[in-house]
Amino acid sequence: MFGFQYYTPTKVVFGRGAEARTAELIREFGGSKVLIHYGGGSVIRSGLLKRVTDLLEENGISYLTLGGAVPNPRLKLVYEGIELCKREGVDFLLAVGGGSAIDSAKAIGYGVTNEGDVWDFYDYRRKAKACLPLGVIVTIAATGSEMSDSSVITREEGLVKRGYSSDYGRPKFAIMDPELTMTLPDYQTACGCTDILMHTLERYFTNGGNMEMTDALAEGLLRTVIKNALILKADPMNYDARAEVMWAGSLSHNGLTGCGNDGGDWMTHKLEHELGGLFDVAHGAGLAALWGSWARYVYQNCLPRFRRFAVNVMDVPVEGTDEEIALKGIRALEDFFRRMNMPTNLRELGITATEEDLRTMAHKCAVGVGGAKGSARVLNEEDMLAIYRASR
Amino acid sequence: MFGFQYYTPTKVVFGRGAEARTAELIREFGGSKVLIHYGGGSVIRSGLLKRVTDLLEENGISYLTLGGAVPNPRLKLVYEGIELCKREGVDFLLAVGGGSAIDSAKAIGYGVTNEGDVWDFYDYRRKAKACLPLGVIVTIAATGSEMSDSSVITREEGLVKRGYSSDYGRPKFAIMDPELTMTLPDYQTACGCTDILMHTLERYFTNGGNMEMTDALAEGLLRTVIKNALILKADPMNYDARAEVMWAGSLSHNGLTGCGNDGGDWMTHKLEHELGGLFDVAHGAGLAALWGSWARYVYQNCLPRFRRFAVNVMDVPVEGTDEEIALKGIRALEDFFRRMNMPTNLRELGITATEEDLRTMAHKCAVGVGGAKGSARVLNEEDMLAIYRASR
Question: Fewer CB within 10 Å, N or C, chain B?
Answer without folding.
Answer: C
